[in-house]
Every structure is written in C-alpha cells, then in structure tokens.
Amino acid sequence: MEITALFKSFIYLVSSSLLTPVLFLLSALILWLIMYSGNFCGLWINRKRLTNDIDPLLALTNQTFSNFPPTVRQCCLQLIELSKQPHADLAVTHLLREQEHHLWKSLDRLKMLIRIGPGLGLIGTLIPMGTGLAALSQGDLTRLSGDLVIAFTTTVVGLTLGLVSYFFFTVQRRWTEEDVKNMELAAEIIMGDYVNRPDERQ
User: Rounded to two decimals, what is the model's pTM?
Assistant: First the structure.
C-alpha cells in the first residue's frame, strides 16, 4: 500500500506541475495564431487580386505569369532557365519536387496545431479538475471555483486553436494543390517546347 501511495503522490505531483507549461504553451500558440492570421489575410488578399478568369493552360503556354502567385511565377522563371541547361529533364524534376516539398512543409505547423491545440486544452482541463475535486473534499469552494474557471477556459482556447487552424489549413491546402498543379503544367509545357526544338539542345 505504501508503494501505491507513493506512486499516486508522484503522479499527482507530475500532473500538477504540468499546468503552468500547458498554460504557457496555450498563450504562446494564441499569439502565434494571431500573427499567422495577419499573414493569412495578406495571402488571401493577394490571391483575390489575381485574375481568376484566365485559362492557366493558355497563360502558361504564352508565358504570361503575372496572373499567378509569386511562388508559381518564380518557379516558372526557374523552369525556363533550367530548360536551356544540360540534363534539363532531371533538373526540372528536382526543382518541382523541391518546390512541392517546400509548399507542403509550410503547412506542417498548422497541421500540428490542429491536434496540439485541443490536446493542450484537454490537459489544461483535467489538471484543474483534479485539484478542484481535492479542494471540494476539503470544503474549499473558492479554490474549486478558480480551478473550474481555468479548466473551462483552457478547453475553449484549445478547441478554438484547433478549429481556426483547421480552417487555415484547409484553405491553404487548396492553394498549395492549385500551385503544384500549375507548376507541373508549366513544366510540361516548357519541357515540351524544349523537346520540340532539338537545335537548342545541341
């Protein structure tokens, strides 16, 4: 029984000590998400300014890159330069994979926050509930009410982080898929023109 009581005390001590780091992480993630919201709004405004009624195939064939996001424009210019070099097909494949990896990697933080936010909120809920129940057994209603406030607010904050991050991730995933599609289309068009001009490959 003494060993069981020792383990219980140790687990309770560890659990109680996690509350402060959880509250700190939730606060830091809120601030980061607020700053990220500004960046997201900037990206959304820039994409809204682009002309959406132009056929991407026609625009890329005519090498009119002004109607594409900066990432796609830069990739198209690099593709044109690489098509003039030896082993152009390998260089183009490497560039496309590198750009695609970079675009998807930029979404990793949002993808993690979708899970981390609610997880931290749940941890921040259960820890004060344990101390609150201990305070209730001692008749300390003041401490119980304070612990319940912390428990419910951390739940709200954690769920909010997850929901907002999921919204941002969903929209930016669609943007990423569109950019990757346009970059692959540009590569096929540029390399198709390169293959059809054997005099430039000699």
Answer: 0.81
